[in-house]
Backbone:
């Protein structure tokens, strides 16, 4: 049967490689659509982030298989072209340096599993929630404008994956559904830290306490499964010197990802109230 198909391809007015390439691409697209549809139907309970993650993974796998298939089909022509282009190989490498670095960054991300769709990350000062990843760049929903706010701004940020080769990646939700969150609050040096720390603890601890047992069990499971050194689940409020004008109060707590901003805002609101009363004792 394959010989008959080959003979039929030879009779066509176009190169058989072109026909084979078109048929292969169409077959991969149809196969991807069928498999993705079956997978999502078998898991109707998946969240939008999990469905989005499956969509991105299937698209990237299809692209890789397409590139590999085209390389196999056009191997002879590519070899001939490579031999004829040997003299300009150095120029091509220079011209495609950024492309190669983006592909290398994408491979690094995949191998090390630095982040995936739905993760909160920061790279080279860019903060956001990942919504799309391809072989060349990563798309995020921006978080900001103030880093303490931590809310989605409604704008998107896109950065080339080459940044992953030269900059560290900070991922907030490495612990899955929970997060260890830290807030630094600068305080004027003349304000009584005992009063401020006491009031912040009084607000922070009741908000975090309902989640502490579940988070502690989760951290113990993560430590046993992944051999991570996990932090404590209990909330902490500490103070450290900074300079002759301010000192820093460090608020650290564990919470569900969906609750961290709510808890943070409650702590900041209380700090502003206490600071106002200390600065205006007669009010």
Residues:
């Amino acid at each position: 049967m394959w010989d008959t198909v080959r003979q039929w391809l030879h009779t066509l007015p176009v190169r058989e490689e072109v026909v084979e390439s078109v048929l292969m691409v169409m077959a991969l697209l149809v196969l991807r659509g069928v498999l993705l549809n079956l997978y999502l139907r078998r898991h109707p309970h998946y969240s939008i982030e999990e469905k989005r993650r499956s969509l991105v993974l299937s698209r990237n796998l299809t692209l890789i298989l397409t590139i590999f298939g085209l390389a196999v089909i056009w191997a002879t022509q590519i070899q001939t072209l490579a031999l004829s282009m040997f003299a300009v190989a150095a120029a091509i490498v220079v011209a495609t340096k950024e492309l190669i670095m983006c592909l290398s960054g994408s491979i690094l991300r995949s191998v090390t599993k630095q982040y995936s769709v739905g993760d909160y990350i920061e790279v080279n000062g860019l903060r956001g929630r990942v919504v799309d990843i391809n072989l060349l760049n990563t798309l995020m929903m921006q978080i900001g404008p103030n880093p303490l706010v931590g809310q989605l701004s409604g704008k998107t940020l896109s950065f080339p994956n080459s940044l992953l080769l030269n900059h560290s990646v900070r991922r907030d939700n490495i612990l899955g559904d929970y997060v260890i969150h830290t807030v630094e609050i600068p305080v004027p040096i003349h304000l009584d830290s005992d009063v401020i720390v006491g009031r912040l603890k009084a607000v922070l601890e009741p908000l975090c306490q309902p989640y502490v047992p579940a988070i502690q069990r989760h951290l113990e499971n993560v430590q046993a499964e992944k051999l991570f050194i996990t932090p404590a689940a209990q909330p902490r409020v500490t103070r450290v010197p900074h300079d002759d004008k301010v000192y820093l109060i460090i608020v650290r707590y564990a919470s569900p990802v969906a609750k961290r901003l709510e808890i943070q805002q409650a702590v900041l609101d209380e700090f502003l109230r206490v600071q106002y009363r200390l600065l205006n004792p007669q009010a």
Notes: The chain has a mean pLDDT of 83. Residues 96 and 212 are 51 Å apart (CA to CA).
